[in-house]
Amino acid sequence: MIMRIWHQSFTVLQDLPAYELGLKKRIDEVIRPDTDVVLHGQIPGTYTNDYPGSDLAYGVLYWMHGLQWIAAAREAEKQGFDAMVLASIAGPMAREIRTIVDIPVVGYGEAAFNLAGLYGRRAGMLFFIKERLDFWPEQLRHWGLTERFAGIEHAGVRFNDVLAAHMDDARMGEVVDKIVEQGEKLVRETGADVIVPGEMPMNLLLSKAGVTEIAGATVIDGIAASFKMAELLVDLKRVSGMRPSNHGYFHQAPDRGRFEQVLAFYGLDDLGSRIPSS
């Protein structure tokens, strides 16, 4: 039985053709033959440059852009997709999205850090958006994973370095070496047994370079983890009927009609149809 998964990026994929091509290649390598993944990104013009890092430095802009993810989830369900993968380490609005759709929704960071517990005792994270330093401890608390969190370390590179490595194989070695060097520092200073490469472009780069461990610590392949988790959750829904909780304030679903009314009130009822696929 064919399984259709909606991939949602926090980037405008049309602005990043080398990254988009790398994503498609890696996703095709990890999914099952009967799984069909359709890539989606943010609406063209969402950001003032080719990567959302400058906006993501501010909590209010992060949450405002997250409205596209709610609209995308609604659209994914309407189009008959079986699951949705939030291909961003933060997984914006994941908990809220699960209350408005009846398909499995997998956030990359949430899946990666939960999976890390099967590979080691404590997980650390590498990241390149320096402005989000304060965000991550709070996000791990939100996921209920604080005790397992070893700490964070800047990757020593920025997005443009990672993008250059995706565009030019000759640049890959030096960029990956720098990330590995910082990963070794993370393991040495925090005792991390597992490393989650933060932003998805960096995660993809390490996967392309074949980096599966750093200083003995397992490196989580976020793309593989996210899509295999999505396949698993669809399978579990099909064979056992398991679905996300609908109990309590954080998980209960609003009336679907009222949800649609509120979207229309704010002029967002057609936002999902503007989410581009590639």
From TrEMBL:
Gene3D superfamilies: 3.40.50.12500
Any one GO molecular-function label of the UniProt entry: amino-acid racemase activity
Pfam family, one: Asp_Glu_race
Family: Belongs to the HyuE racemase family.
Listed name of the protein: Racemase
Species this protein is from: Advenella kashmirensis W13003
